[in-house]
Amino acid sequence: xxxxxxxxxxxxxxxxxxxxxxxxxxxxxxxxxxxxxxxxxxxxxxxxxxxxxxxxxxxxxxxxxxxxxxxxxxxxxxxxxxxxxxxxxxxxxxxxxxxxxxxxxxxxxxxxxxxxxxxxxxxxxxxxxxxxxxxxxxxxxxxxxxxxxxxxxxxxxxxxxxxxx
Amino acid sequence: xxxxxxxxxxxxxxxxxxxxxxxxxxxxxxxxxxxxxxxxxxxxxxxxxxxxxxxxxxxxxxxxxxxxxxxxxxxxxxxxxxxxxxxxxxxxxxxxxxxxxxxxxxxxxxxxxxxxxxxxxxxxxxxxxxxxxxx
Amino acid sequence: xxxxxxxxxxxxxxxxxxxxxxxxxxxxxxxxxxxxxxxxxxxxxxxxxxxxxxxxxxxxxxxxxxxxxxxxxxxxxxxxxxxxxxxxxxxxxxxxxxxxxxxxxxxxxxxxxxxxxxxxxxxxxxxxxxxxxxxxxxxxxxxxxxxxxxxxxxxxxxxxxxxxxxxxxxxxxxxxxxxxxxxxxxxxxxxxxxxxxxxxxxxxxxxxxxxxxxxxxxxxxxxxxxxxxxxxxxxxxxxxxxxxxxxxxxxxxxxxxxxxxxxxxxxxxxxxxxxxxxxxxxxxxxxxxxxxxxxxxxxxxxxxxxxxxxxxxxxxxxxxxxxxxxxxxxxxxxxxxxxxxxxxxxxxxxxxxxxxxxxxxxxxxxxxxxxxxxxxxxxxxxxxxxxxxxxxxxxxxxxxx
Lengths: 165, 135, 401
What we know:
The structure holds three protein chains of three kinds.
Chain A: H1 6-17, E1 21-25, E2 31-36, H2 41-50, E3 55-63, E4 70-79, E5 82-91, E6 96-98, H3 108-118, E7 121-123, H4 156-162
Parallel strand pairs in A: 2-5, 6-7
Antiparallel strand pairs in A: 1-2, 3-4, 4-5
Chain B: H1 4-16, E1 39-40, H2 50-54, E2 60-66, E3 71-77, H3 86-90, E4 96-97, E5 114-118, H4 120-133
Antiparallel strand pairs in B: 1-4, 2-3, 3-5
Chain C: E1 16-20, E2 32-38, E3 41-48, H1 56-61, H2 65-72, H3 80-95, H4 101-129, H5 133-154, E4 163-164, E5 167-168, H6 174-200, H7 202-208, H8 216-222, H9 226-230, H10 238-241, H11 262-285, E6 303-311, E7 314-322, E8 328-334, H12 337-348, H13 356-362, H14 367-370, H15 389-394
Antiparallel strand pairs in C: 1-2, 2-3, 4-5, 6-7, 7-8
Helix pairs in contact in C: 2-3, 4-5, 4-11, 4-13, 5-6, 6-11
């Protein structure tokens, strides 16, 4: 793998992911963005692991906004200079995605972050407990969503600390 | 055992004398680029407020009393400041400076951390205004 | 617990759990480790982090592009420059500008000085964990040399804020050039001595040889990065794979070892110092002339980018998205300690309890970097996340702020 050039790497990935791709773009020379359906995610990730294309660097979750009505998940795979991003878009109201834990066990904490920060339901992930947020954080308030209002997140402890009871 | 070199070092350090300063009596000279308490010079200020806008710690406030007459008061919170130097870079008129030697900032009084620069009469107006609003 | 509840069945085979931390778990940073032991041998390891989580990713969203730089610089105290550099490079890419060559060279120069500082700090900490305090004190004394150089160049010993969107704030004067060369010469001589100690001292070899061995296959599979990966023979270095800043003009030789044990991680890092000294001299010899800054508009055009750079501990990953305004839309940070931390737990099982601090320090963990995340894992059984929220809460969990 090490001797392969950037073009070859990206070409391999593009060819392999083509069967699931809704849209394929090259936003920067070293990157390949592949939009896939949420239902194809498991097959695509399993395939990337099977052909040993790089390693999963991280999962980024983005809220595209209330008007757009979707959340976007980016699965970044890195191999040398090349970065392949699998983009999955899911509706904001019914945010549901299967877990890729069975193929890449180290994703557990990335998925837990998505659950509490963006309010995504992830099926078959072994642990759905909170990671960052305090115990008394209200249910259904997701800080990385764009319509997040800091006042909604006023926990009893915060309120006390800020002096506004 | 490869400790021979280290023992030589240890013995050297023993006869070398302390490498610390007797601080209140001897002051270490800080490097030229060291950043300490911010100073502001009214002369060229246009009151654009870029320093205030770019400050990552909200340590700066430029109060405009009269833009045409160039009556600005510069409020600087030393305890908020992270001494990053962004304000100095943002200022197009070179009004701001972070000198290297004014770093003895410890105090027992919180009020000392609030520094006002500007025309004395104008500073008094700002202070009085605050006393009224109770801010 | 079992003694308080007589109705509860005794476990089939009793294991003894040794909690370490959260205060001062070998390193002077907070983290909680639990090792299940059978005699002296570790059979199971779990870790819980998150004591220094500060919500930086969300915080950046409510700041301007300029303010964000100073916030991300505070993700980590030791490798603050690489965070600011990654952020600046990403934002510049989005804005469609490129910092002048001299600025890029100075960025790389400060990054390399920071690497010396980080590696020497690590050498001291690791030596301390091995019970070799003499090496600890001398390496930290010598680290002062590079700290003073950094203070001279940037004005600060840590959180240098050498970067600014579109370039750097500080230039290298001829006097500084001479000071850096003198400092690097001194450090190179000292590093030779440290390499001699690391490679030949009998006691030290016994503490490190064949401890925490990670094969190349394991390293690739676990996705470890930085010197930890290179010690297992994986030539993974972003400065070579995807050169950024001035590394295109100043190529880096990748230092690898094949043994994959703790000793190899020492040798890789110490040898990397020599490469860094060479690089610093090369940059000083061919420092491009020109401006230090280009103008970057306050509003960054809409778009998104990925920036990866080689921090002292490994690959640092930034995803930055702009919606076209004065504030970032999303900034995602993945620090190198995160993938490396997983490897520690895999490697812990089967080793002596006394080796744990050494294996842990072997990856040069940085909890502040890590703590935008909490990892709870159980490597012995297949079940990875063993702690419930209630259990976490019991331990005074306060991850949000």
